[in-house]
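Weekly sync, protein design subgroup
Attendees: M.S., D.O., the rotation student, P.L. (late)

Item 1: inverse folding check
M.S. brought a backbone from last month's batch and wanted to see whether the design step gives back something sensible before we order anything. D.O. pointed out we never logged the input encoding, so this time it goes straight into the notes. Structure tokens as presented (151 positions):
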């Protein structure tokens, strides 16, 4: 299981290659990568976090996903700092014996990262900066997993 919170860009292809190398008993690997969208004239996004706290929180939810779906492995990479449209923000990878477990665990992790992971996001448009909150859709997606709001 791996959790990395970093400012540096990462190579999604290399990360996937490293994640699948040597797998023999897992029949499914699922990945998802989130990119900065250029919506409404977005010029940049700034992501802040508290080092240590963020990694512990994500590691805890990865452990929960592993228990719920009997994952063989999981990887979460999430960037912080100033990001531009088109840049990768995050990547989730899950490996399991069967596809359903890999897919559901990946969705669970993505929903957590979007709504509960301790990151603070600010969007820049022109000369304005706005803090971003989880949307109602994000909260609804998370609700299907029965995650307490204090997680």
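Designed sequence read out in the meeting:
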């Amino acid at each position: 299981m791996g959790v990395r919170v970093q400012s540096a860009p990462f190579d999604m292809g290399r990360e996937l290659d490293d994640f699948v190398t040597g797998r023999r008993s897992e029949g499914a690997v699922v990945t998802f990568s989130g990119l900065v969208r250029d919506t409404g004239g977005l010029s940049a996004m700034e992501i802040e976090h508290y080092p240590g706290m963020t990694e512990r929180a994500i590691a805890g939810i990865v452990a929960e996903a592993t228990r719920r779906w009997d994952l063989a492995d999981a990887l979460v990479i999430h960037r912080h700092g100033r990001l531009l449209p088109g840049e990768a923000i995050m990547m989730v990878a899950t490996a399991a014996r069967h596809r359903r477990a890999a897919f559901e665990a990946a969705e669970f992790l993505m929903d957590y990262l979007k709504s509960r992971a301790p990151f603070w996001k600010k969007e820049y448009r022109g000369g304005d900066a706005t803090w971003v909150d989880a949307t109602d859709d994000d909260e609804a997606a998370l609700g299907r997993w029965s995650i307490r709001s204090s997680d």
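Discussion: The chain has a mean pLDDT of 92. The radius of gyration is 16 Å.
Action: P.L. to compare against the previous round before Friday.
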